[in-house]
Every structure is written in C-alpha cells, then in structure tokens.
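Example record

One chain of 424 residues, shown exactly as stored in the release files.
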Amino acid sequence: MSGRRIFIKNSAFTIAGSLLAGVNASGRGQRYLKITNDADEEAFWEEVRMQFPLTHARTYFNNGSIGPSPYPVLEAVRLKMEELNALGEYKGHEDSRKPIAEFVKVPYHEISLTHNTTEGINIIAAGLPLKRGDEVIMTSHEHAGNALPWLNQKKLKGFKIKVFTPADTAEDNLNLINDLITEKTRVIAVPHITCTTGHLLPVQQIAELAHDKKIWVFYDGAHAAGSIALDLKKIGCDFYASCGHKWLLGPSGTGFLYVREEMFDVVQAGFIGAYSDTGWEITEERQMLSGYVPDAHRYDYGTQSAALSNGLKTAVAFINEIGMPRVESYSRGLTTLLRNNLANLGGDLDILTPEEEISRSTMVTFRLPDMNYRDFGKLASENKFRIRLVPESKLNAIRISTHIYNNKNEIENFTALVVKAMKG
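Predicted structure tokens for this chain:
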C-alpha cells in the first residue's frame, strides 16, 4: 500500500460545476473530493467511509437491499438536475451506457439502460419465443424481481418452470441443474448471487453446460454488479440484468440489461419508443415501422433521467477509482470474518451461506437456535444495527450484507450481539 494515492476529482466524474468540499451534510460528516492514503489500510477505508452520508448512530448491514450513495454521486445527480433545469434540456441519459459496458466488459452496443433489475428481467422473460411445453429452470431462492416475471410469462404462455434448491458447493449446483435438463429445456434463469443466502452460483460452468445443449442462459445480477468483478463475456451468458442501487452505490431508478448481440433478433422488443427504431411513419395512407436499431438500444425507450444517469456514471467512476478487485477483496473479507465468527460460536447456530469460498459472496445468512428471527431483528434494531430478515423460501433467517463503508469493529460488535442473543 505504500505510495498508494487515490484522487476522486471532478474530471473523473465529468460533473457540471464543482463539488463542494467541506460542506456539512446534516451534521453527519463532510463531503470529500479525494481519498488519499500512503500506508495505513485501516485509515484508507475510514476515509472511504467518510465519503458517505451514512449516520454513525447505527451500523448499516443491508447493502443487499439498497446501497447508500457516496457524496460524489449525490452531487452528480443534484448538479445535473440543476443544469438541466437551468438550460431547459433533458438529454444525457445515454452517458452511463458506455461506462457500464466497460465495467462489465462488454461492447457498448450490447447494453440497454433500464430503471432496475426487474425491468431487464421482464424484457427477457416476455421477449423470448417460449411456448406451451417449453421448460425454464430456476431456483427456489428467487427474489420477487426474478420470480414474478417468469411466473407471469408462464401464466400467459403456458411453459413449465422446473426448480432446484441451491446446494452448498458449485459442483452440486451444476449437477442439480444438469439433472433437470431435458430436450424441452429452453432457458436457465437463475440468480448470479441469491438474495436469500448469498450463494454464488458457478455461472460460467452453467453457461457452458447450457450452450452445449442449445439452451439460453439468463442471470439475475442484482447482487453481483459492484460486489464482485464482472466479465460477462467470460461468464458466457446470453442475458444479464442488474441495477445501480445496490453494490454499485448509484441512484435508485437506474439499471442495465446485457443482451448478447446474437440474441437481438431472438428477444422481441415488446416495448419501444424514440430511437428504438430504424424508421417509422403513421399517416392516413401509410402506417409503418421499418425495423429496430441493430443494438440493445431497441429495448430501452422514452425519456429517462439524465440526472440519475449521471449519478450512475459517477458511481461507476467512484468504484473504479478505488479498484473493483480491491472493493471485492475488502467486502469479502468482512463477510468471511463474520462467517468465521459465527461458525466459532458452536451450538446449534445454523449458517445457511456456503462454507465453500467460490460459492459465497458478500452476504452471510444464518438462523439462531432458540430465538425467532423476527425477535432477533427487533433486538438488532434496538442495538442500532440495520439488517435484513429473510422470510423468503420459508428460511426465516437473518441476512447480513457488507460493503466498503463497513469495518471489522462493526463485525465484532455484531458478533457480540449474536452471542448475547444465544445466551438469552
């Protein structure tokens, strides 16, 4: 770390105007323009923490639901909104398309800008040519945002959904999927990382297995973008949807959908608008849509928020300044520490997140032996911890998700709370 200096500058974010350093934010700290550190790792991450308006009155362990944005992102949104209203303009939402494409290592023309992960999932679920008798493979640990679009299309089109419950190892999960595949299987539509337990599925191997059998592959990446380094070309999927408001630390109302170029004419664009088309005419004599643009822009349409897009672009730049490998290593280190702490408590404490390192990410989910999960949630709240309860899949569990604004002391304090709860 010696000599390491990270500067977060206006030029890095291409924000109109200048960010205001040293301005108090509701008494919760200061807005910083740069993060610098020459040697001390702990001091470095503390400076990162000071970029966020998060209150110090409690510990935030629910990044898996929403990731608070750092000051540069908030300023980017505000300043762009002021600029647009000062000039009476509305364009600029396209500005985040290229940074997102570079962040996930795909060509610019394969990225569609959406408002959230669920929108991207609906585009794929509705747009694929599925029919009665076809089969789609999913997990029993789906977020509503992935479950409902496919269930809705199942209801409308009559295809069948086959389900497996994620296992503790990558090899077992690959075998579970393989066992469900038949000649009628058309799609594997599973989370990259489950929202329930933080299972990290072997996505590259799943894609290889599927493509060998001419099966399309879609991944719900809501919990992956910004928590682990992504290379969607290496993963090999056909479609990938994610959002800006979790580990990317961007504004709510932002997201993206990756569609592999070869799939443009397979996935029908069900909703289109200005710039989705190659030409149109509607007169008394002629009503015509000539076709769709030859890129993923066909799937996004209408007026979008240039201010939110500027915030998303800034969020990507913020993470890139720190370095995605470093972000991932730090966040994984925190959840590994927590998982190890919980495992060392013994008793009947039930850790649902896999022990296998390649099968877990930046979340830890567990159950206490003699305490209802909702009672623990109340206890955690009273002790100033913001956590997530997991009633989904009838797990009735407790989920902790960490990011770059958390630290080891918070992990140790939370472990102490668990110990207190177990002692009654």
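Notes: DSSP finds 13 helices and 17 strands in the chain.
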